[in-house]
Design brief:
The complex is a heterodimer of chains A (504) and B (1069). Chain A contains 14 helices and 19 strands. By secondary structure, chain A is α+β, with helices and mostly antiparallel strands. In chain A, the strands form six sheets. Chain A has a six-stranded antiparallel beta barrel with strand order 14-15-16-17-18-19. A four-stranded antiparallel β-sheet of chain A has the order 8-11-9-10. A three-stranded mixed β-sheet of chain A has the order 3-2-4, sandwiched between helices. Chain A starts with a strand and ends with a strand. Helices cover 43% and strands 13% of the residues of chain B. In chain B, helix 28 runs antiparallel to helix 29, helix 29 crosses helix 30 and helix 32 packs antiparallel against helix 33. Classes of the chains: A alpha+beta (504), B alpha/beta (1069). Chains A and B meet through helix 3, strand 4, helix 8, helix 10 and strand 16 of A and helix 6, helix 7, helix 8, helix 18 and helix 20 of B.
Chain lengths: 504, 1069
Amino acid sequence: MWLRRLATDRILRGRAAAPADLPLAIVGEIKNAHRLTALNDAAAALGLKVGTALADARAMYPGLAVEAADPAADRLLLGAIADWCDRFTPLVGLDPPDGIILDVTGCAHLFGGESDLCRDLMRRLAIQGFRSRVAVADTVGCASAVARYGTPAAVPSGGVREILLPLPLAALRIASDLVALLAEAGLRKIADVIALPRAPLAARFGAEFVRRLDQAFGREDEPITPRLPVPAYMAERRFADPIALEADVLGIIEHLGGELSRLLQARGEGARRLQVALFRADGKVHRIEVGTGEPVRDAARVRRLFAERLAAVGDACDPGFGFDVIRLSALATERLDPVQTGLARDSGEAELSHLVDRLSARFGERRVQRLIPQNTHIPELAVAAVPAQAKSARFESYAVEQDSLGPVRPIRLFEWPEAIEAIAAVPDGPPVRFRWRRVLHEVTAAEGPERIAMEWWRDDKGNALTRDYFRVESREGVRVWLYREGLYGREETQPRWFLHGLFA
Amino acid sequence: MVAYAELSLTTNFSFLRGASHPEELVAQAGALGLAGLGVADRNSVAGVVRAHSAAKAVGLKIAAGARLVFSDGTPDILAYPCDRAAWGRLTQLLTRGKRKAEKGDCILALGDLCDFVEGLSLIVAPPIRIDADKLAALLARLKQIAPRSVWLGASVLYRGDDERRLARLAEVARDAFTPLIATNDVLYHAPERRSLQDVITCVREHVTIEAAGRRLQANAERHLKGPEEMARLFRAIPGAVAETLRFFDRCRFSLDELKKTEYPNETRQGFATPQDALVAHAQEGARRRFPGGMIAKIREGLDKELAVTAELQYAPYFLTVHDIVAFARSQGILCQGRGSAANSVICYCLGITDVDPQKIDLLFERFVSAERREPPDIDVDFEHERREEVIQYIYKKYGRDHAGLAATVICYRGRSAIRDVGKAFGLSEDAVGALSGMLWGWSLDGVDEEDAGRAGLNPANPRLQRVLALAKALIGFPRHLSQHVGGFVITRSPLDAVVPIENAAMEDRTVIEWDKDDLNDLNILKVDVLGLGMLSCLRRSFDLLEAHYGVKRDLSIQDEERAVYAMIQRADTIGVFQIESRAQMSMLPRLRPKEFYDLVIEVAIVRPGPIQGDMVHPYLRRRQGLESVTYPSPELKAILHKTLGVPLFQEHAMRIAIVAAGFAPSEADRLRRAMATFKRVGTIDSFRNKFIEGMTSRGYARDFAERCFSQIEGFGEYGFPESHAASFANLVYASAWIKCRYPDVFACALLNSLPMGFYAAAQLVRDAEEHGVEIRPVDINFSTWDSLLEKGAPQWDRLSPRHASMRQGIRTGRAVRLGLRKVVGFKEDDGKRIEGVRGAGFDSIRDLWLRAGLSPSALERLAKADAFRSLGLSRRQALWVVRGLRRAGDKDDLPLLARAATPALEPDVALPQMRLGEEVVEDYRSLELSLKAHPVSFLRVDLERRGILRHENLAAIRSGRVVTVAGLVLVRQRPGSANGVIFMTLEDETGIANTIVWPPVFETFRPVVLGARLVSVTGRLQNEYGVIHVVADRIDDLTPLLRQLAAPADPVGPLVSTAAVMPKGRNFH
């Protein structure tokens, strides 16, 4: 099976309304140069070639759409397609970068014979947005050659030789430079070499070449390496009598959690995302997922998490006539090294994390948040709320650079700065007095200004005003953070004043 | 009235940190009324000269220094030298740091400063977060090594804690008995530059503007501020502002002190002074050059020149050049001088140039202007392959301590600017590519909104508009220093005590921090040691002439043969120096050069200056007698009489500025220099007004004035003064003579000098064949590494009818054997080895393998190049045999045993025969040319069916008819001066066709023009004076036809793209 436009199909099928007939090229970095690594049919029709430098392609077609190559994503996708092929045969092998090999010995008849199987496969792939060519033959080499260079079809048993002879040597799955070497000797088609003595061929073009030849013609066996099953952390329990009580379900989950825990422990991992699949006797399946803030493999904790979740889900998880299978699986895992247990162990950290997990399970992951510092000068953007469970190992924290005895930012920052009236010396003196919420405050001490210019690149109208912040203390002991918006003289003639936060 | 001098100034020569040009900062400082400006870039003095020159023009005082940035945690220190010696120590300090580091970097420790601190005034720039104890300790240490020379800097940067911070600094300063000094730590000249400074910060940090966050400055305060504002900011400690003047007064050093006193003495044995030596050498040379004695005019010229040289003390400089040239001569290296001072009687007598001063009128003013006191300028071209020997000689003679290569400042161009700004704004690779794709090559223009629209982006998008505007502002910003091609600075004091020296990208090369303009501004003399491919070719030609024909020739022979000019008039100039480009060739039949001076004009006229100034057509009309020769004024007649009243040379434009627009000579020179850099400075408008108003007020037509000015604009970077043109014209004549008389010698020498010029080997070979020269293929039994001449005779049957008139003049008597160097990828060592062991010849591939000990891959390349024909082996057979040799290939593997052990028992293998078309394709693949046939000839049937004409038939077709031609694309040329017109040269089996593609047609057929290797062009034929062009209406890509060459009826198709083997077509500007 040859997915002939895998890389571009991957991108185009992800786009809702992208017309597939627009030229698209994939660009990768080869030897420090940006080159086209894949094309869709429309781009190929323009005459572009894989290997062309992006700059050249661009000069020819300034409007050409390009995407960055992502071999890892392609590989993942190929694996996913291979998994999907499990429906046809358990023996599925990968032929990277864009081929899949199915051993359909003895199972083609289930799909109406080999020819129908080919057509069915191509049709189903086409529905999913993949352009493919599928061939069935006695040998892997032959099937691969026909899929890529011949007319995709089922090659009748014994017809290998006849179908291979007119195909180019590249069809033998040999490196392109070897193909070029052979071409220099005038050898282009399989027919050109099949009659030649083998020893001189092997001496000049290597044993690998002869082996490929033999494999294609079935003179040498070629096993298919099936895809390795993904290591699955899964525990399952089947019941003769379906169970329906929530307490029983939770009991089973804890039990399964114990089994899972042993599996995870053996590999030194913990679960970050768990799923319980509740298979109802009548065939309906409920799947309930919970996430955790840090890797977990404690069965009791797993139970508590699902207890919260089940309570939150409520009636949506209707047991009907009961569940006959319950399966607990770890969808995402992470390394979890055994923790050194000290004598005076401070479990505050773990307790907090557990609390976060439980609250998140109960109220939803997005509802439980924490604040992390942001890399910006703009005060109101300097912290961001993120789901508390999200791993945010990478956030930059900043040392305060200002020379100050107290905090340079208020304890409480208003979401909306409040307009105030203030009297201050021009151009950039601190306010002498200001009126906030109708109360007049006499300023006894002030420090500033701290001048913070707004982000000019976000401002479309070209009037981002600069702020001069002051820390001030009033006679009554009110300590506030306020600012004047607009530089006197340079930006504004009548700058406005705002109060942005409270110190203590 | 307060006075203030800003001492902490970062220009954009602190790459990707400063956001204003030195010129902008100086102008702003002048406008603000600052008392002075201290320029201190990060571990660099690269920008000080520009600031110095700009400041001189506005009468501002400048202190030149550097901001020392340490890698050991020491806070930055601004260092300003107070005298010449201290300057030397500063540059030596920087040199030490730079030599320790990678190119462009500098590693300094506080200890390094201690070694060179004498005479430097230091300002410690405290870090943002002050640690009073550490700072006090640093001040104490500095005061110890540099008593009374240490200041503590303080800046008000609006961080909220300024009062507290200033108080703390004042306290530290008081305790350390160190004066506090105010600075504003300036990054740009005006607050509006904040956005650009943010963008370059992003470029430096490789982040997008959204992600840059606190890496950017919080506000726009780091601009130049006036005295009042600084006094207000420092009202708490007023002494700090006044201190700037005290500090500034100590900085007595001026860059002007580096002037020509730095030039080495160049004393000569037996002479009291350099001037005496120069006079003696010149007189001796004069006797040799003018055996019959000089005519009076020349004699007077020489005397006058010598007098000026004496007055300005430039004798050592001429002696230096004389010495370098003498060395080259002694080594048999061909060379020729050019440049303003080169075409003087002195240089002719000293042998620096070979242009007979009697042939061109010398403009003495151009030689050395006593009034302007500008240094003489001599560039010397050497054979490009042997230039390194000359460079090494200079290093050896003066020592690496006293000689070094000048830098070239690499600036942002249109493409790089849009790329970096686009990246900082997070534009996709896509969009950035599309935007920069709108610019052709090295354009200095930005992308405008219209272009952006054409690139498929929404020009109304404010974000995009911002990107375009910032990119435009970034153009002209220096990005890094690179090595100048050959500008040598030679100094008397150690070079590193004049200017810092840093490592170049090339190993064992170092480069100074100043470029040639800077050196010029400081009157530091330099010699340009340049490489010129044509000189290599000419030396080879002269050698071959002497060896094969016993003819002795050199550059000084200007015999003005009519046959040579006849050839040039027919534009039969492929391979001839300078006049082989498309634009030049189309000019020749109209200009019809008859004598040496016509060549000088020809070389100068096809240049951006005259073209932009629209001077070419007036000159041609006058020359052809279609227009009467008139002069705009009598005073201009004196200047323009030799060029029929039309200004063509750079000095014409300058003289017009002086004589007709009333410029002072120094002003005219500034104008010329401003032109070269005008995108950078933007002062051009005032020059323009002054020039045009000056001329119109003196009674010249406004139209003429404007044309003169655009010509100066065009000269900018590509100006050609008459003396340059004359030196080049000399090479034109020399190379044309050889091509005319001995096309075999010419072809052989050119082939051995490639790559050079416009044409590839295939066209040179073809041109030689059309002149009756037999070219023989590469063969292991005959070829040496270089192509060579073999016994042979002219092949008159191959002489093209176009060149029939030359038959009497051609003296060819040899055939050219292509050398092994033509085999793609074949190494010179292997070639020499074959030459060495060949003896009576090789009788088999095994024989060659065993005797020459070549690697299998080398043998393979020879087989692919079809070099075994003399053994009776076809390309394919040879390759089969080579591949069958024992692949181990080690020499130990070779002895007798191996010979016996590999039996010839292999069964015979019948390989398919190669078709001729395939052979040609393979020839192109491994030799880039084919002697067997032209690729297009195989397609002729097909082409004829499409109604496509042979190129040889075009001459017979009258102008205006619509024709279709087809051929391989050899060259696409888009001269900057031709409004975006593209010249595309096509080649078929009968010759060359030239097509013109106008921009609208180009836009329609863009992919074909740029990507196709074989095209057909349909359009109207233009024949003017025998110059034939097809003006394209329609262009079709025929590249797929090339497949037929390799495999006409093969269902499988060629395995390796045939088209890829064919020349891709070279792009020129």
